[in-house]
Design goal:
The structure is a single chain. Strand 1, helix 1 (about 15-25) and strand 2 form a beta-alpha-beta unit. A 7-stranded parallel beta sheet has the order 3-2-1-4-5-6-12, sandwiched between helices. It is α/β, with parallel strands linked by helices and about 270 residues long. It is built from 10 helices and 12 strands. The chain has helices at about 15-25, 50, 65-70, 80-95, 105-115, 130-145, 170-180, 185-190, 240-250, 265; strands at about 5-10, 30-35, 60, 75, 95-100, 120-125, 150-160, 190, 205-210, 215-225, 230-235, 260.
Length: about 270
């Protein structure tokens, strides 16, 4: 048991956090080394296994990330940008693998994470699933094959509780399309349309977002030309695909050199 990498789950009481705790406990490849929550959370001081409906583990949910991460091999983090930046610094100090699924990060946040990656193995992706990362590769290739006569639209749908728009996955896809076209994403992205906007600009990449119910995640990349459309689509029906991908990343990162990686590295894509 002790030779299995110890994994800390940040944001353990959240939707993804609970799924991650269960995935680690059931994996047979890793052990739960800690569970973190923000101060004042009602899970603090309680057994992480029992809280997710599994057998009690003796791992008590803590609000002390420095002490918890110091005795682990990796931390998996689907939290908030503010918490992720703090965890990145601590992971760097402890020289452990930091798997980041947090979205909504600013350029300043990303710079802080890059600084931490000088000492830690940072694996960051807007989506941890195999299918989505294959979709990213396909999007890049299709965009490279088609000229600007084909308009590109990224349409995404998520549950009502998601707070960032566009989703991290949608941005991954938009950036892949821009890379395929050889253009600067930030100069061609249309991230919101309302009112009399005028005709669509040639070569731009548009985003549309749907929020409602318990939708896990749906992403379409539409290449719309005159007389034909190509639609690349991924539909997630079970949040466990993200948890399994995150655990795979945490295990893959063991023994790697410090630096920044993503799921294309983990999956060998």
């Amino acid at each position: 048991m002790s030779d299995r990498p110890g994994i800390v789950i940040a944001g353990a009481s959240g939707r993804m956090g609970r799924m991650l705790v269960r995935t680690v406990l059931e994996s047979g490849e890793a052990r739960l080394a800690g569970a973190l929550e923000r101060p004042g959370n009602p899970w603090i001081g309680r057994d992480a296994g029992g809280l997710v409906g599994a057998e009690e583990t003796g791992i008590i949910v803590s609000d002390d990330p420095a002490e918890t991460i110091a005795r682990a091999h990796a931390v998996i983090d689907f939290t908030t940008p503010e918490a992720t930046v703090e965890l990145a610094a601590l992971a760097g100090q402890a020289r452990v693998v930091h798997v980041i699924g947090t979205t909504g990060l600013t350029a300043e946040d990303q710079n802080s994470i890059s600084a931490a990656a000088r000492q830690a193995i940072v694996i960051r992706a807007g989506n941890m699933s195999l299918g989505v990362n294959l979709l990213v590769q396909l999007t890049r290739k299709v965009a490279a094959a088609l000229d600007a006569d084909f308009d590109i639209e990224v349409v995404e749908a998520h549950h009502r509780h998601k707070v960032d728009v566009p989703s991290g996955t949608a941005l991954m896809l938009g950036h892949a399309a821009a890379e395929g076209r050889g253009v600067d994403h930030d100069l061609v992205a249309d991230r919101g349309r309302d009112g009399i906007t005028g005709a669509r600009e040639r070569g731009h990449i548009g985003y549309s977002a749907i929020r409602g119910g318990d939708i896990v995640g749906e992403h379409d990349v539409i290449f719309a030309g005159d007389g034909e459309r190509i639609v690349l689509r991924h539909v997630a029906t079970d949040r466990r695909i993200f948890a399994r991908g995150a655990l795979k990343a945490a295990l893959w990162g063991q023994g790697r050199k410090p630096g920044e990686y993503d799921m294309t590295d983990v999956l060998g894509l």
